[in-house]
Amino acid sequence: MFSDAPEPRAERSSAQSPMRSRAPRSPRQRRPGPGWGRVRTGRAAPLAAALAGAVTASLLTACGGGSDSAVDPAESLRPTARPATASVDDVNGAKASPECAAAVKTLRMAAVGSLNDAAKSGKAYMEKAHPGLTVELSAEAPGYPELVAQLSADRAAGRSTDVAVAGFDLLPTFATDLGAQELSPSLLRASYDQRFLPLGEYRGKLVAIPQQVSVLTLVYNKGVLEKAGVDPATLTTTTGVLAAADKIKASGQSIQPIDLPTGGFAQWYLSTLASSKGTPVQKADGQPDLTTPAAREAAAFLAKVGTYGPQSSDPTTEGLLRFGIRRETAISAVTLPTLAGGLRYIHDQGAQGFEVGVLPFPTLPGGSVRPVAGGNGLAVLSTDRCQREMATELVVALLSPEVIAAGTEAFSFYPVDTAARTQLAPFYREFPELTQFDALIPAIVQAPTWGGERGGEVHDTINDELVAIIRGADPNATLTAAQRKVTELVR
Asked: N or C: which terminal CB in the chain sees fewer CB atoms within 10 Å?
């Protein structure tokens, strides 16, 4: 059946993003991952447990802005679809100078657990290309906020890191607290899809090269919608989704019409919906903008969704079970990186499965699709010239078309390299449902990047307020309270 990012930050495990060396929250408070994994009906118990582990391990990287949620990474690893070999084309100065290659003996890279496979491919390339070099990998952090805490503690102790994975919504921390260096697009291969570069910018500077990019999607049980007389084409707007939910509710099928998992995702829903009206939840000056007409309209939609039944609190361990195994929900939200695994499972089940439809996340009435990105980028933290040159070569190696293609086969993030997309032609023939998202690339919006000493807490603060709305709190009063709280956090 179907299952459920990383993202991004999908949603991602959530801890307060510890600016400087603030300690992360307990595991109970981490943002869940952005996606789903594979599910089997029937032998539900063991398979559900295995699925939850695989999904939590691999899809949490999908978020960044809702952190694709994206977006946090995983605590255990799932291998890439196939072995991948990193490389660096000798173009535009991507390779370190002979002087620096001879001088640098150690590089340190910090990543989240689910990116360990890609990091290992970069390590193998660099150590082969530069005999005598040692690349030290640290990939124990279960999520982006925890990784920031680790980097902050290392920095305070005088232990430097050369390359790190940066969740999109934590770019202010990397730029202002962790010393992320400005990068030049000219260092990248000609095949890198530079439409993604704005997602890694902070205050006009490119501080992280996007590596994994995710957006929200909507999945639905085709059979249930057909019996209820719902045309899937009407699910493109929130009014259409609610009208469909009413028809499903009245159809006598004993299934909850809609489930939008809330753990870490709720703030991503709000941001994506408000963005569809051209009014982001963050102003250009970095302040919150949570009480606009679009934000209020989005909150009213989430409040109505809550009236159809309990919304899953965790997108991976609860949302996927309800939709894919128990068939308790007809419509649900997932992230792009989760689709290939789920669809592959469905295709393998034949008559024992059920047909699943896939669409972009809906817009507000009168809006247009402007999806908010989840995911992460690669940042260079070295300040020494030679360390920086070698770190940049490692980054470019990690963006090899072969590595990007292997990762996309495992988790269907957007491939950020056009040569990788060419390699993936058989993959997209197998999953044509994914190709509809290509048209959205020019419209993808950067995730809110909250600054300030306590900016890392904003994600969870907004999410908590929206969960309250879904559970029955007054939308307008709650958004007003959220605006006040976030204003304090980003001072």
From this structure: C
Q: Against a cut of 0.90, is the pTM above it?
A: no
Helices (H) and strands (E) in the chain, counts: 17, 11
* Residue 151: closest CA among 172, 112, 173, 178: 178
Q: What is the rounded CA–CA span in Å between residue 4 and residue 96?
A: 40
In what order do the strands lie in the sheet containing 329-335?
256-259, 329-335, 216-221, 356-360
Give the SS3 label for residue 79: coil
C-alpha distances out from residue 45 to 50, 341, 342, 354, Å: 9, 19, 17, 19
Q: What is the pLDDT of residues 301-356, one digit of tens each?
A: 999 999 999 999 987 678 877 887 788 999 999 889 888 877 777 677 777 778 99
Tokens of 157: 């102790």
DSSP letters, 93-154, are T-SPPHHHHHH--EEEEEEEGGGHHHHHHHHHHHHHHSTT-EEEEEEEESSHHHHHHHHHHH
Q: How many CB atoms lie within 10 A of CB 247?
A: 17
> Does residue 193 contact residue 221 with C-beta atoms inside 8 Å?
no
- In angstroms, the CA 278 to CA 112 distance is 32
Per DSSP bridges, beta strands 201-202 and 106-112 are unpaired
Per-residue pLDDT tens over the stretch 34-86: 333 222 233 333 333 333 333 333 333 344 343 333 333 332 224 455 778 88
